[in-house]
Amino acid sequence: MARSLSVRDIDAGDFQRREWRVERAGWIALVLVLVAAGFGVFGSGPLSSTESVSGDGSIRVDYERFVRHSGQSQLTATVAPDAVRDGYATVRLSAGLNETMDIESVFPEPESSTSDGSGVIFRFAVETGSPLVMRVHYRPQSIGTNSGYLRTGQGDAAHVRQFTYP
Fold it and tell me: Rounded to 10 degrees, what is the CA torsion of 39, 35, 66, 155?
């Protein structure tokens, strides 16, 4: 005849040790999430903002590393005075970035903007010898890791890599 187990047959010490392990793992996970949030993985903080500079120093891009889908975001590109040619600065936003963002505004307003297969080209009137600070206000439209670049004229690219939360 099969014998059924009763509460007395279960080793209470073994059960309690397993329960403590699970509880410790839960506490560790909670602490890791809180530390990540404090450093900016889920919002503002020291890990949330970053910058990328082109190899030749012609452009620097400041942006948020972590963004929310359809949330307002800003990307700031600073074009070095050396990259201004004949009173104009040209900034190319790669197709990889352009396709993952809904651009709401660009400040200052570009004199012209054209699109080709490799992205969008913005042309700004700038005083010779002055830097250009371009701000792009946008809403991320693609969930996950998005990457691309910004470059001036024929200069080197400043690469951008963002993670978009749902």
Answer: 40
| Pairwise CA distance, residues 110 & 123, whole Å | 6
pLDDT of 61 reads 97
Q: Burial-class residue 72 by CB neighbours within 10 Å (0-12, 13-18, 19+).
A: exposed
Class of residue 30 by CB neighbours under 10 A (exposed 0-12, middle 13-18, buried 19+): exposed
**Geometric angle at alpha carbon 17, from 11 and 19, rounded to 5°:** 100
**Mean pLDDT value across residues 149-155:** 91
* 3-state percent breakdown (helix, strand, coil) of the chain, nearest 5: 20, 45, 35
Strand arrangement, sheet containing 59-64: 49-53, 59-64, 73-79, 132-140, 101-107
157 neighbors 150 (Cβ within 8 angstroms): yes
Q: How far apart are alpha carbons 96 and 148 in whole angstroms?
A: 5
Give dist(CA 2, CA 42) in Å, integer.
55
Q: What confidence tens digit (pLDDT) does each residue in 21-54 have?
A: 899 988 898 888 888 777 766 666 676 789 999 9
Percent of residues, the chain, with pLDDT higher than 70: 88
**Model confidence over 116-139: pLDDT tens digits?**
888 999 999 998 889 999 999 999
Q: Is 2.60.40.1510 the CATH classification of the domain at 49-165?
A: yes
